[in-house]
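User: For a benchmark we're assembling, each entry needs the component sequences followed by a predicted structure for the full assembly. Here are entry 17's components. Please fill in the structure.
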Amino acid sequence: MGYMKSLIGKESGIRYPLEALYVCEVSFGPLEVEYDYERMQGDVTREKILNRPGNMWRYREFLPIEGDPTVGQQVGFTPLVEAKQLAKKLGCKKIYIKNDAVNYPTLSFKDRVVAVALSRAKELGFTTVSCASTGNLANSVAANAAGAGLRAVIFIPCDLEHTKIIGTSIYGARVVGIRGSYDEVNRLCSEIANHYPWGFVNINLRPYYSEGSKTVGFEICEQLGWRAPAQVVIPMASGSLLTKIHKAINEFTQLGLIEAGSTRIFGAQATGCSPIAKAVKNDWDIFRPEKPDTIAKSLAIGNPADGYFAHQIINKTKGWAEDVSDPEIIAAIKLLAETEGIFTETAGGVTLGVTLKLLESGKLDKNEEIVICITGNGLKTQEAIVDAVVAPDVIDPKLASFEAIWKDNS
Ligand SMILES: Cc1ncc(COP(=O)(O)O)c(C=O)c1O
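Assistant: Structure for entry 17:
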């Protein structure tokens, strides 16, 4: 049996049963999973975790399912790469890339949240799963649902990157493109969720789903040799990933798996959709919803569900948030590819671009280690960089032709 106790209102503290619920009826705020940490205390040890296979379920006590995981046995435990060339170029002491661009099966960190959401959906008896998505979630729900024998109905803004649309339809999912922004898609899905008995992973299953993001934080701590990072830079769309990496570090500390540290948490957004970064930079108590206009479509959420909580964590940990323009995103994608051989999608360009800006402003400390969360794969957003890469030389199959183009490079 798992360690869940109840769902609990994040603001109200009111408890609810462990069902497909996501909004507190009193505060209208989000619900979160509450665990029995006391019972977990003696049961979770480093040895136990180390003896399990290298995937996200090695932290299963911290994840919201009752029985054994049924989805995602290959997901997670992605590489934490020491980025020596990038660090040298930027004059930094140590940089690590947490590389979820190679996550299984759909090449983004969303495979983690989906593994949890679908495992829980099966426990709750759903046979159809659904989501509102900016692209990566669509890919992951479609693929994992196919593998789990579930029907998938996916809602996306109709103008997503082609690869993200094809990378959803291929799995046999029913894909519905909406003429509108992600925020409009999400609103429609909340309505549909009231009429259809489906498990919407990021709506009525959201308290369970979002917990999957904690595994990024657990892995970073374990891969650093069982300690918390000094500074971590995280992309933000809804802001959930950032809040869950923070929660993961706190849970590992609370259970004595790592020593108490003082991780500073930094958030990254694209300038064309930066409600959370703007709230942080202007010290606003609330964020102002935006109409997105950026190539970083996966981060294009104008009204972020966890924006308020992400802002609070950034303040509490003495971090900061920044945003970068589309040309800065493209330059950062190229920089990561050329220095570390890692091809990230636009979201990763945002995260590295923001890292550069925070180093320049001195908000990030060059002399302390930095972990950069790369959350998605560049093969999925090639449209964004197609004009920014050098086209190959095309020549006749003759030595003279080669030498004609090579002479300037020798
Ligand atoms: C590649 C990528 N990185 C980061 C995020 C941000 O996730 P969150 O909504 O948890 O802030 C997303 C969201 O879709 C994403 O697709």
